[in-house]
C-alpha cells in the first residue's frame, strides 16, 4: 500500500517554519520511538501483559461489519474472511515499516503462536498471499477445527514492509449473539469475555468498527466501548460501508465524523470505503480499492471531507 494513497480524514497537521528533512525525521524516529514499540511487543510476547497493563490498540466490532477490510487496508495483507465468526482468537498484528533506498518492494512476514504446554510454532512467510492460510491454520490449532473461539491463546503476525506504518493492533472476534450449528451454546459470552478482557485496561485505545448501514449509536461494539470508556476518551470510531447508505442518510454520517451527533468520541471518528467480497472475487487489488475509496469521498454529491 503506497504511502501517497493513505487517506487522512478530518486531521490536518500544521507546518512549522523550521522543517527537518524526511531522512533526519526517519532516523530520529527509528532511534527514539521504534525501540519502545519493539519493547512493548516483546513484553507482550513474553506474557508480561497478564500482570502489567501495556499500551495497545484493540480492534472490536460486531460480526460482518468490515473489520477485516479495515485491517487489510492498513496492513496490505488479506486476512481470513467469511460468514459468522472468522477471527476466532486474538490476532496481534505487528506492522514494521522498512526504510532506506533498498526497502522499496521488500516484504517479510512471520507468524507465531503457542499452544499450552508446547513449544512455540513459528512460520516465516515469503509474501502477503501466504498470510490468510497461515492465520487459518493457526486459528484451527488454537481454537479447534470447528467454529469456536480461543479465549486464552493468541496469534502474533509480524509484517515488515516499506508500505506499512509502524503500528501494532490486536484484532478480536466479532461480537455474536446467537450460537449457530457447530458453536458452543455460550459462544456469545465467550466472545464478550475475550473483548472485555482486552478493552478494560486504561492504557488501551479502542478502535471501534461500526457499519454505516446500522443504527450507529446503538451498535453493540460501541456499547461495549462505552461500558469501559464512558467519556469516549480512548475510543476511535471507524465507520465502514459508507457507500451503502441510502439517500439522505449521509448527513448523519457526516455529523458523527464532525462530532455533531449523539456519538462523541474524543479520538475522533472516520468513514472508510473498503473492498467488498464481490471486489475480492473480481480480484480488485488493495491499491485499486484505495483509488476507488479516494474517488468516492472526493466526488460524492454530499461532499464528504477528504484530505
List keywords for this structure.
31% helix, 9 strands, 20% strand, alpha/beta, 307 residues, 9-stranded mixed β-sheet, globular, 9 helices
Describe the structure.
It is a single chain. The chain is an alpha/beta fold. The chain has helices spanning about 20-30, 35-45, 65-75, 130-145, 185-200, 220-230, 250-255, 275-280, 285-300; strands spanning about 55-60, 90-95, 105-115, 120-125, 150-160, 165-170, 205-210, 235-240, 270. It is built from nine helices and nine strands. β3 (about 105-115) and β4 (about 120-125) form a beta hairpin. The model is unreliable at about 1-20 (pLDDT under 50).
Q: Nutshell version of this structure?
A:
With 307 residues, this protein is of the alpha/beta class.
Question: Can you lay out the helices and strands and say which pair or pack?
Answer:
Blueprint: H1 22-32, H2 34-45, E1 56-61, H3 67-75, E2 89-97, E3 107-113, E4 121-125, H4 131-143, E5 150-161, E6 167-171, H5 187-199, E7 204-211, H6 220-228, E8 235-240, H7 250-257, E9 269-271, H8 277-281, H9 286-299
Amino acid at each position: 500500500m503506497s504511502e501517497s494513497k493513505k487517506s487522512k480524514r478530518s486531521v490536518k497537521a500544521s507546518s512549522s517554519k523550521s522543517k527537518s528533512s524526511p531522512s533526519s525525521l526517519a532516523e530520529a524516529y527509528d532511534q527514539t520511538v521504534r525501540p519502545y514499540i519493539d519493547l512493548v511487543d516483546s513484553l507482550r510476547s513474553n506474557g508480561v501483559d497478564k500482570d502489567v497493563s501495556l499500551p495497545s490498540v484493540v480492534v472490536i466490532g460486531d460480526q460482518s461489519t468490515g473489520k477485516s477490510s479495515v485491517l487489510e487496508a492498513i496492513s496490505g495483507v488479506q486476512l481470513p474472511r467469511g460468514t459468522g465468526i472468522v477471527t476466532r482468537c486474538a490476532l496481534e498484528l505487528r506492522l514494521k515499516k522498512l526504510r532506506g533506498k533498498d526497502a522499496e518492494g521488500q516484504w517479510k512476514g512471520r507468524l507465531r503462536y503457542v499452544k499450552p504446554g508446547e513449544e512455540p510454532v513459528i512460520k516465516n512467510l515469503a509474501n502477503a498471499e501466504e498470510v490468510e492460510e497461515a492465520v487459518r491454520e493457526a486459528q484451527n490449532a488454537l481454537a479447534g477445527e470447528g467454529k469456536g473461539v480461543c479465549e486464552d491463546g493468541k496469534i502474533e503476525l509480524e509484517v515488515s514492509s516499506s508500505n506499512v506504518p509502524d503500528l501494532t493492533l490486536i484484532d478480536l472476534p466479532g461480537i455474536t449473539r446467537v450460537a449457530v450449528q457447530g458453536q458452543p451454546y455460550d459462544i456469545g459470552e465467550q466472545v464478550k469475555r475475550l473483548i472485555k478482557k482486552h478493552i478494560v485496561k486504561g492504557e488501551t485505545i479502542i478502535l471501534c468498527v461500526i457499519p454505516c448501514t446500522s443504527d450507529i449509536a446503538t451498535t453493540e461494539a460501541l456499547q461495549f466501548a462505552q461500558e469501559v470508556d464512558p467519556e469516549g476518551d480512548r475510543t476511535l470510531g471507524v465507520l465502514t460501508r459508507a457507500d451503502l447508505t441510502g439517500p439522505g442518510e449521509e448527513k448523519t454520517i457526516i455529523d458523527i465524523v464532525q462530532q455533531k451527533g449523539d456519538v462523541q468520541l474524543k479520538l475522533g471518528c472516520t468513514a472508510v470505503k473498503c473492498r467488498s467480497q464481490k471486489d475480492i472475487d473480481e480480484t480488485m487489488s488493495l491499491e485499486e480499492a484505495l483509488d476507488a475509496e479516494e474517488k468516492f469521498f472526493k466526488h460524492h454529491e454530499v461532499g464528504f471531507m477528504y484530505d
